[in-house]
Each structure stands twice: as structure tokens, then as C-alpha cells.
Fold Mn-containing catalase.
Amino acid sequence: MFYHVKELQYHAKPERPDPVFARKLQEILGGQFGEISVALQYLFQGWNTRGDGKYRDMLMDIGTEELAHIEMLATMIARLLDGAPDVELDEAAKNPFVAAILGGSNPQHSIVSGLGAMPADANGNKWTADYIIASGNLLADFRANLNSESQGRLQAVRLYEQTDDRGVKDMLSWLIARDTMHQNQWYAACLELEAKENIVVPSTFPRELEKQEVAYTFYNNSAGTKSAKGRWAHGPSIDGLGQFNYFENPVPFGEKPKLNPAPPYIHDTPPAALRKSDDMPDPDMK
Amino acid sequence: MFYHVKELQYHAKPERPDPVFARKLQEILGGQFGEISVALQYLFQGWNTRGDGKYRDMLMDIGTEELAHIEMLATMIARLLDGAPDVELDEAAKNPFVAAILGGSNPQHSIVSGLGAMPADANGNKWTADYIIASGNLLADFRANLNSESQGRLQAVRLYEQTDDRGVKDMLSWLIARDTMHQNQWYAACLELEAKENIVVPSTFPRELEKQEVAYTFYNNSAGTKSAKGRWAHGPSIDGLGQFNYFENPVPFGEKPKLNPAPPYIHDTPPAALRKSDDMPDPDMK
Amino acid sequence: MFYHVKELQYHAKPERPDPVFARKLQEILGGQFGEISVALQYLFQGWNTRGDGKYRDMLMDIGTEELAHIEMLATMIARLLDGAPDVELDEAAKNPFVAAILGGSNPQHSIVSGLGAMPADANGNKWTADYIIASGNLLADFRANLNSESQGRLQAVRLYEQTDDRGVKDMLSWLIARDTMHQNQWYAACLELEAKENIVVPSTFPRELEKQEVAYTFYNNSAGTKSAKGRWAHGPSIDGLGQFNYFENPVPFGEKPKLNPAPPYIHDTPPAALRKSDDMPDPDMK
Amino acid sequence: MFYHVKELQYHAKPERPDPVFARKLQEILGGQFGEISVALQYLFQGWNTRGDGKYRDMLMDIGTEELAHIEMLATMIARLLDGAPDVELDEAAKNPFVAAILGGSNPQHSIVSGLGAMPADANGNKWTADYIIASGNLLADFRANLNSESQGRLQAVRLYEQTDDRGVKDMLSWLIARDTMHQNQWYAACLELEAKENIVVPSTFPRELEKQEVAYTFYNNSAGTKSAKGRWAHGPSIDGLGQFNYFENPVPFGEKPKLNPAPPYIHDTPPAALRKSDDMPDPDMK
Amino acid sequence: MFYHVKELQYHAKPERPDPVFARKLQEILGGQFGEISVALQYLFQGWNTRGDGKYRDMLMDIGTEELAHIEMLATMIARLLDGAPDVELDEAAKNPFVAAILGGSNPQHSIVSGLGAMPADANGNKWTADYIIASGNLLADFRANLNSESQGRLQAVRLYEQTDDRGVKDMLSWLIARDTMHQNQWYAACLELEAKENIVVPSTFPRELEKQEVAYTFYNNSAGTKSAKGRWAHGPSIDGLGQFNYFENPVPFGEKPKLNPAPPYIHDTPPAALRKSDDMPDPDMK
Amino acid sequence: MFYHVKELQYHAKPERPDPVFARKLQEILGGQFGEISVALQYLFQGWNTRGDGKYRDMLMDIGTEELAHIEMLATMIARLLDGAPDVELDEAAKNPFVAAILGGSNPQHSIVSGLGAMPADANGNKWTADYIIASGNLLADFRANLNSESQGRLQAVRLYEQTDDRGVKDMLSWLIARDTMHQNQWYAACLELEAKENIVVPSTFPRELEKQEVAYTFYNNSAGTKSAKGRWAHGPSIDGLGQFNYFENPVPFGEKPKLNPAPPYIHDTPPAALRKSDDMPDPDMK
């Protein structure tokens, strides 16, 4: 169960309205790695955690914090849209500032949301749960989380560079710092579980049931062998159970696939038509 | 540019048809962490890599391999659907086997794809590029890749457990082994870059521009403090630049947000209507 | 900002596992009118409310409650999936119970989420922000909310009828009661605003700027006039500003649309080709 | 079955082309509350109506009218795109008018649709049936319809304010008037059904089966009690069957959820790994 | 503008309810090539046709007919769902008929739509305008339409084979016949335009502006040359302007792509980190 | 199985960066008829082809070529984004060039992809497998392919006209020429199969099972008869099995649909409420 307090976790006040930046800021609210994504990702992982208090508690704590970040961004975006002008093409004809607003802002902010934030990204794509991950395996999911915080901080930093508004920068510097913490946190959580399970997810599948002869092989599927220079191509594997090896000229292990014809009720191309297609001489058969 | 060879990378022959398992297997072909996702994710990361041969080459190599995995799964699914019966409710009434097929198979396999594989997941959701990630920052993206291979291997293992078909298990044991390699590979690539950049992505943003006072703080946003037991709550941070600390009773740093009224052309609730809403005594004002 | 308490708002314990009902219950968690929809709808409406404390406070209160409902449903679904069997087609051949589970459960529950709840509906469609509404106009949005609670209660009641599990029924009877309150609540809020604004949204657009001659007309666009029997066809309009009237045989007020040709860079069908299409005698021109 | 007449229901002729406004106008053609949404929503409700002539007839009448509105908007958008210039960045460098067009128009109008209308919103998101509602319960659905017409008129009014083109304004004043009628109409239809059924949907579920003790309670889930001022917090409930009451400090009725471990074939985090996570002292256990 | 008549274009009465077939039939109502797709595709093509009466009239005629097909299918599906039983897992345990219904029907038919048709496909994916095509170029679009009717008739035929219900078969035999007409019709329309424009769309782009040396070349991008047997590999091209030729061993015409580094505000992997990645000996450089 | 060579199939070098055109070019990379669509469409058709070498080989050849086109476009887009400036509203105020870039470029290129190409269209909609087609019936699918290449070439030509960059035009002239070949190719393949099967897909459904009396009838569902002028309205049908005929005043063959009431557990509008709706006199009953 949740409670709400009316104060924001941190300030969300721009120096001045900027509807173009409001559109951009939507990315870290409602984009693939926006705050809605991390909030629901951590909460679902928490709710689905089976059997342990510590990880569940931690997931709920951070998921709950991300709800506060949604709130800060929604507030900031509404303020960046404050008094957004009602601009037309004729006015834009005279003024590059107006032209930039007409072109660079999200028209749905003035038509649909009434100058409020939307659960959507910088191109107006609505948020979708396709973005989030909760598998029940904590090590797998903590890696997903480490990625989310890495992508999220990267986007926040890119946005920080694209504005001069000190109020916006101030809020972003808070969110960037929290992402620093959260990258550290998920990294720490991964190390803790890897120390108990080794690094390959899931750790509980018997290794002898997989094709061990290809479990540490790098396939060079292209001309050139620059890819042989990496740590992944030689030496002991990271899980300590094998040796990396580099396969310079990979060959198929399987055969040419040949499918049986479909049953009649499927009404595929009739076999007779396919046979007639052999009327022309077949170069393979020469 | 690409070339195709007709042979499969590895065998893809089931012992017998099974339209219900064909539906399930769609998950690792066209689901969030299916082979289409990893193929296009690695290829886009490769195409977008700026300035270095080794990582780009490696990304193209593995992306190209994943195309071969799509091919194996598409072939296996078509074979699992081989001669799928044309079943009706009346027949199902007499036979649990028929009932299970009627209920458990994907109706689009017989109506839409003609007993072929589809670019969709186990519930028939079509594949979408919402699933994939390519940011231009290699460490961020390699973390995404480590996650993809972790989720992907987890799903392959769960599917391995849900069938007795030795042909299917044989193919899955190949794919599971490749995922073992790929987890090792991305882990190795991450370690290589972390050794050069430290662990926080992006490494190039000046640390003094973020709110350093909250860059290593865990906020306990719930009653109870089990979350204090983790590695993330005490001791030096993983990036070596701070000390984790645990904030047991977090408080807001911001203020109650108050938004200005919208301009008239937005036609929000009129201020007069809002004022009249104060006719009833306000308990806050007591 | 938000806090979490570990206890559930209400009990969420089924008598026994039932993976088929778990799939169905997803509808009111992650479907169009599921708890994710109402939670985010009310919170976004609250965050975007400009200028008044009472409605914003109320929206945040109820949005925060809906987060607790997501939590209850996620917990219930995980428990309904408890120990979900790993069933195969061969077993189903012998047993209608197994056949029903194989067919009626969501395969992603065992492949993707590890027997946890997913942010998706009863068919596995992922939740999308396409479902939610926040326009900045409170009367419009409260009507959206009244609809959401009506659809939501209807779905909960239908689900209540489709299970015999007393634990599930107990939880649903809680959620149904809350929906009773919430329908009453939004109805009350609508009445309050309608009393101040009249019923047509938005109330601030000057009535003389709309075509008043068709503002109270019902068009009977079909043969037969049963639609004339309704309250909407005769008598004073609900807003008190007009008289309903019934137009039995509506005719067009506009003209046949004729579009200019596209500029050459668009490469539409060339005008010459269109002209030649008049070679056959035109029956209209007779 | 349907017939088409070539004349438009009302005029759809702009004074002059304006590709930027064409993009905006897409919102009420193909957006969440655009004409495609209401047309298909009313038609599906009509087709699914079980057992009564009057409501079905009315739904078909209005759904058929909305098809005419799609046609008017499609025609208007094509005309606003008439002769849309083929503009480039170099030209934009010299001219804010060109810059505004380059930025503010929808590039798919010139690349994909050949300067025709698209079934998409102002940001180019394609229309989806996620937007529409048809439950079989008429009162629930009429509330959905009242909301749709409220949101739709609000958007039309906002667009009316964002153009000076008298032809566009003329068409919008027609659509706005029809939305006035349609809000009145659905309101009237709701009142009719509420008079027979009371206000809570569905009316046929036995009230004693819901938790009556919480069926009229407002939960104040936040600090501060401004939400107590509303009509929803005190006095008789709108359905006349209870008394609203305000719960200032809500507490959980449930318990902390604890989930059982998953079966082994799910390959979650192994219990041993979870146990070891207790190595650090647990602050809760102090 | 449109009118509706209450009678169906053709009968839509099943012999008996069958909720499993109702689910399957959704495919040709709300799937990729269902009746919603063709109705809106033809109507949008008609509304966007610039400058000619005959094709526009024809498009509107057939689009209007497809609306009648949506209506027939919606009616048929509602009847197949008539009195659909409220089945539970316990009952299914005893009865394969119940098990098949529990597994094979769409749960949203009983939870969401109240036993009515939905704008969705056989897997419950909601209809989306991603499915439809209207480019402004009539020859391109008539080819899209020929494809739609081919896929649509194929699906209707497959469904015809999967039921024994004479009422359903009767309706399908109507729809299949209409698809026969519509394939003939679009084929005829294509021939008419091809006679005026030649076969390559668009016909108005100057041929000398394309790389003519590769305009009739088949690239054999795989081992083996079975693909040389087709009409497309030898002889005069279909447009009569070239000779097909077969390139057995295609080679790249371009160079290895090398991208410049990103500007600093993008925060990609820092160049220094990339340089250090050359510490290991590069096999390409040997 | 696939191999990659590092060289591009053809050059992909613009004369100069242009972030606005980069956004537009996304359409033919990740839009409905972009290269991702054709690559995956042809590959899935190839993988699902049952029983014949020649068509499968040809499909794999061309699908593999399309992968090379994705690569060329991804490279070109990254170069068009090279050094894309980090522009702000304040700068735009002074300079229409900056205003155009701010408005006309895709903000996700600088926030999300790090100035790399994305699997998305010109409006930033992510690529989805909703776009592609693979039915197992080759004639149906080759028609889909002919359409794809027609739409694709049309879009490429429109883009060619919208830029002056000689490097971009050079690459487009390659892609346009390949589309010329591919239209010729699919046309040839269709002719080959039609010669064996006649033109109606599928050719294997017994014609006597369809309602032959309406298999060659054009229904004129609108006032006016311009549509009678086409080849489709008179003369022998294209399949040679019937005579086209024109039905000027079509009438319904079916009856008014009347649906039974839903069972009680569905909780639709109660029959009593519907009955009371007859209180007003019914004009139909006069």
C-alpha cells in the first residue's frame, strides 16, 4: 500500500517556459528508459519476488522513489509549457522563434493534454509495457536494471547538454546523481548474486545438458578478424568454466531445411504448380 | 553486405509435430528477448558504432549469427506445425488431446501463416522495435546485451523443461550453449570498457555537475529496513568514488507544486468554477 | 513523493492455485480498464491540475489507492500461479484438466515472467498509455473516470461470476465495493462542476461561434425511426439552452469534394493516365 | 448495410493551404478521440446490442454520422496539404516561413500518403482499436460516449483557437455544434437508464456480495485533507444507498505478502543464493 | 456522407453457438486483412484520390460494401458467442468439451465485450491502422488491394475448412465469392492503369535518374543457383525496357563504412577508451 | 546461415550533414515499406516455403540483399547526423536555419540513439511486424511483394525529389533501380504462378462452394454511376470464368439482425430496463 506526500522529492522549477524542451524532456518521463519504465519495472519485480525479504524490500524502495521522479518530471514539463503561445503559420513567417516553437513543440501538448505532461516519449509515442522486464530471476533482472539506469543516465546527460535553463539543469543534476547511485546499486546487487551463483543466468540449469563444445566459441561470421582482439576471443572464460576460442571460418553444422507440404485445408501453392516451376532447366542440376 | 548459405547453423528437427509447443517456441523467435530482438539489436549497434573497428566487427559477427538462429527457430516451428490437424469443437468434445490442441495452439498458425513461423511471441503479439536498444554508448549497450542474453537463456531453459521431444531439446541445448558464450562475451566486453572508463555510464559527464550529496544514498521509502542489509547500503561505492549510505527516513527536498492556470485558448476548467469549489469549508484552513 | 508500506490494502489469498483464472485476472490488472490504467490516469490528471488544491488532492488520493490495487492483483496472480504445473501435450492427451490448463493459461507466465503477474491483459497484450486520459479539463476527465470505474466494476463482476474460489471472490468483493465508491465519487464530482459550468465541455467556448442550428438535432441516418423514441429526440435539451429535434431524412449540406492534382514531386497517378480512363462512356454524363 | 452519397455532410474548404495545421487536424481524425474512434465505437456498440431496437437504432444512426465526419476531415486535410511545397533545409536557412513548414508539418504527408489524410494523430501515431470501448452494458458504454464527445469537443475547440482560416473555422464550428448535441444526447441516454437502474454499473450485481463497509468511504492517502471538501466526502451517496464518509488516516487491512518459491523448472534465483543474502545483519531483526 | 439500412447484406446465422470458432472468426473481422482493414483502406484511398471521378467512385463503392461485411461478421460472432457458458477449471477437469472451450475461446469475449465482437484478431491483438495503405498513387494502391483480397480470401477459405456449421459456411461462401470478384476487380483496374503507365510504379520518375546498370539484375546472394530458373533471371524484363540478367557472384560496390566520432555532448564511448582497446594485437594489422 | 562482408553493397556518403533529411530517410529504413519490412518479409516467406527449391532460393536471395539495404541506409543516416548541432530555442530565435533544425529533426536522434539510425519511421514510430506478410501461399505473397516494392519505390522517389545532396541522390538512384528490378521480378513471378493456377487466390478452393451468383458482380453502393465505366463493370472477368456485371441499385439479401439477450453472468443492461425504454410511443409501430 502507498502514501503520497505533497512535496516533491526535489525542486522542479524552470527559469522560463520552453515548449520545445518540454517535448524533449518527455523522453525521460515516458520513453523506453523513462521514469515510468523504471518505476513499473522495479515494482513488478518486487511484487513478483518469491521468498526473500531483502531484495523485495530494496526493489519496492527504489520503485517507490521512481514514482517521485515521474512526479518531478510531470511538474517540470507542465511548467515548461506554462503559457505556451498559440502560434500559427502566419506568425511563424515573420519570426524564427515562433517558427521554432511551431516546429519543435509537440502539438498534442496544446490539443490533447492541455499543456500538461503526457505518458509518452519525445516523439509522442505512448508509453508501453513492452519496455519493461520482470522474469522472476533476480540476477537476470538486476542486469536489466543496470542497463536501464545506464541508458537513463545517458539520456539525462544528453538532455542536460541541450538546455541553458538553470532550473532544468538543477533538477537534471539531481536525477543524474540518483542514476549514479542506482548504477552503483544494481552493480552491487549483481556482484552479490554472482558471488553466490556464478555469472551465467540461470545458474541452475545443468551444464552437461548444453552443447558444451560451442559454449565458449566466438564465431567470426564476417571477412576480417578484428573481432579476435577482444577479451572474449582468447583466455579463460569469465565464468571460469571454459576457455574462449575464436572460430575464424565458421561452417554450418546443420543441413538444408526442407519442409513437408502443408495439408490441403491450408490452401498453399498447389504442388502441381510448384512442379511445373521446374520446366526451366535447373542450373543446380547441371 | 550479407551472403546466405542454405545449410542451417545447427539441426532443427523435432521428433514429431506439436502445434502447442510451436506456439510456445515463438517466444524466443519473436518475443521481447527472441532472436529477432538480438539480431537487430546487435546489427543496429554495429552500424551505429562510431570510430572503432574491433567492437563494430564483433557486433556484426554476433548479429549475423543471430540471423542464423532466427532461421533455425523458424524451421523448427514450421516442422512442429507439420500436418497440424484441422480440429473442431465437436471433435474436442470427445478427446482431451484434441481439446488441448484446440486450446493451446495459436489459431493464426492455421489461418494466417499457413503453418509457418510468425514474427510474434507466444501470445501472438507481433514483434516490435520497442524491444531493442542502441544508444551509441558501447558500455551502456553491452549491458543491454548482457541482459538480453540472460533473459534469453532463462527463457530457453524454461522451454527446454517443458518438452520431451529430443529433437527440440537438442536444438535448444545448442542455443543455450551459445547464450552461455554470449553472456560470457558481453561480460568480458563490459569488463574491458569498465577498466578504461569506470562503471558509471556515461563516464564523460563531469561528476561535479551532479548533486554529489545524493549520488551514493539509498532511500528507504518504506516501513521496515530489510533493504539495509545489501551491499548497496554500506561501504565504499562500486565506482570507488564515494561511500554508500542508508537514509532510513527520507524527506522531501522540494516544495508542493503549484501550477499556473492555463491560457484561455486551452479551455481548461474555468477559474471561476474552481473558486466556487471552495464553498465547502476547507479542513486544511481550520 | 510516495511511501510504501508492506501490508496490502486488503487480503489477496486464493484457496488454491488456478493458472487459467490467473490469466483472466490479468484483465483488471493490465487491461484497458485495469488498475494500471486508473492509477496512472488519476495521477497524471492530478499532476497536471492547474490552480486548485481540492481536486488535485482528491486525484492524488485515489491514484495512490489504485497503486495498492495493482499490488493486490499482482500478489493474487502470483499465488494463483503457485506451483503451476509444467504440462505437455502428451499428458494433456489423457486428462481434460491438463488439457484445459495447457490451453487456457498464458504461456508467458511460465516462459517470461517466472509465474509472476505481467503488465498485460487477459490476452497477453501489453499495457499501453493509449488507454489513459488527462486533458487538463476536469469535467471532461471526471467523465472519463466515471466511465473507467463503470467498465472496471463490470469486468470485476464478470470475473467474480467465473470463479468459485472463495479467496478470489473475497478480494473481488473488496475491489467491487471500492468501484461502487469511485463511481459515486466521480458522479458527485461531475455534478459539482456541472452545477458551476453547465453540462457541455468545454463550457468556456462562446456558443455563438458554433453552428447553433445543428446543436440540438438528432440525425436519423437509417431507415426506420425507432431512435425517435429516446429522450434525446424531443423536448428541452439537457443543457437547458435548446430544444431537441429529430431530423428524419437528413440531407447533405456540403458539396461533392473535388481535390486538386498533387504537385509533380509527389508522383501520383499521372493526369494523362486519369484522362484516358474516360475512354469508356460515362453513365453519369448520359 | 450502408450507402454512400457523394456530397459531404458539411463544407470542408479552407481558405488556403497550411500543411502545419493539416498535421494538427489529424488529431481529431485519427487520434484517441478522433472521428475514427467515435465512428467505430458507436458502430461496434450498435452491432453488439442485444435485444432492443431503440438504443441499437440510435447507436447506428450516430455511428453512421461519424463516418461522414471522417470524410469531411479527410477532405479538409487533403486540401490543407494542397500544393504543399517540397522544402529543404537550405531554403529554410533563409526563411522562417519555410523553416516552420519544414519543422511543423508531418513528413509522412509528403513521403507516404501523397498529401492525403492518414489514419493517424497529430504526432503520426497510427490509429488503434485500443482507443475504443464496447462492453455490452449500455449505461457503461454511454458514459464512455459522453466522455468521448467531451474530450473530442475540447480538442476541436482548442484547434479552432489555433487557426485564422475562416474555412477551417467554419467546418470546426459545425463539428463543435454536433459535439454539443452528442454530449446532450449521451447525457439524456444516461439519465434514462439511470432512472431505471440506479447509477452504479452494473446494476444487477447483488449489493450484499460486495464489502459494503468500504463502498462509500473516501480514503485520504496523503498528508493534508483538502480532499475532504468535496461532495464525495460527506452526505448521502449519489446512489442513495449509503453515506459518504472520509477516512483521514487509512491503514492496511491485509498482511505483508509472502510468495512461495517457484518450482525448479522455472529457474528463478536459487533458494540457496537467497539464504546467503542474509549474511549481513538484518536491521529488522534487531 | 453515409446512410445505414438495418438489413444485412447477407445472412449471418450459425446453426449453433461455438465460442472457439467465434475467436477464430475475429481474424477476418479485425486482423491484418480483416474487413476493418479493407473498409478503411478503400475509403481512405477514395477520400485521397485527386482529380478523377471514376476511380474515386469505385473506391467509395467497395469501401462502403466492406462496412457491410464488418457488420455481418460482428453479428455472426455475437451469435456464435450466444449463451457462451461460464466455465471453470473444475468443470473442465471432467469434460474435454469444457476444457476446449476454456482453452480455445477468447477470455475477453466474456470479460470485456460482453459476448460481442471486438475490433481485434484471432489472438486478441487490437486492430491498428499500421495495416492499411493509401499512397495517392492509384496503381501502387490497387496492387495493395489485390494483395489484401488475396490474403483475405485465403484466410476465409482456411476458416471455411475449419468448421462444420452450415450457417457459418453459408456466410463464408458469400464472402469468398465477393473476394473472387474483388480480386478480379483490382486485377482489372491494375491492367487498365498499366496499359497507360507501364508496370513500374511510379511511372513518372525519369528512368535515366536511376542506376540503369542494376535495374534488371538478379543478385544471387547465396550458394546454389536454383533461383536462376525463374522468369525473373533471363529474357526481356516485364516492363519491356531491359533484359533480366543473373549475377551469380555479387560483389560489393561500396566501401567499408567508417563513421566520424560523435560530438562531445552525445557522451558516446570516449575515444580514449576506444584507443586503449587496441592494446591487444590486432590480427587484421599483422 | 549468413555471412557478412564489411563493404557496403553501394556507396552511402552524403555531401554534408542534414539532420532534417536524416529524419525523413528513416521512413524507407524503418517505415511500413522500409527495408526492414522487405528484408524480414522475404526471409520469413523463404523460411516458410514448403516443398520447392526455386522460389525459396529466390526469396532468400532477395531477402539477403535487403539486409544490405538496411545497412546502407543506417550508414547514410548516421552520416547525415554527423556533428548534428546541439541547438536550443534561444539560438533558434535568431536564425531560421537553427529553427528548422530544431523543429524538423527527430529529437530521439540526439537523446536516444546517439546520432545513429533507429528502427523507426519518419515520425519516430518504432518498426513493427504488423507491417509484414507471409501466408505460405506464394501467389498471395508475391502480390504482397509487388505492392511493397511499388510503395517503396514511390517513397524513395519522393525523397529523391526532396533533397539536393548529390551523395544522397546517388544512393537513392541505386535503391530506386533495385526497386525497378524487384517490381519486374515479382511481376514475373506472379505471371509464372498465374499461368499455372489462374488468378484467384487460393486456386484450390472448389468454385462451386462459393456463392457464384455474386462472384462477378460490382455493387454500386452510392448515388451516381461513374464506377460503371471501369473494366471491372462489364465484359469477361479476368479469370475467364465469368462475366462482370454492374448492380446499380443493390439491396440487402439478409434480414435485420436481432441478438438474444446475454446470460445473467455477463451483467449487461437488464431486460427490464430495456423494456421500460418503450414507454415513449414508437414511431415504427404507428
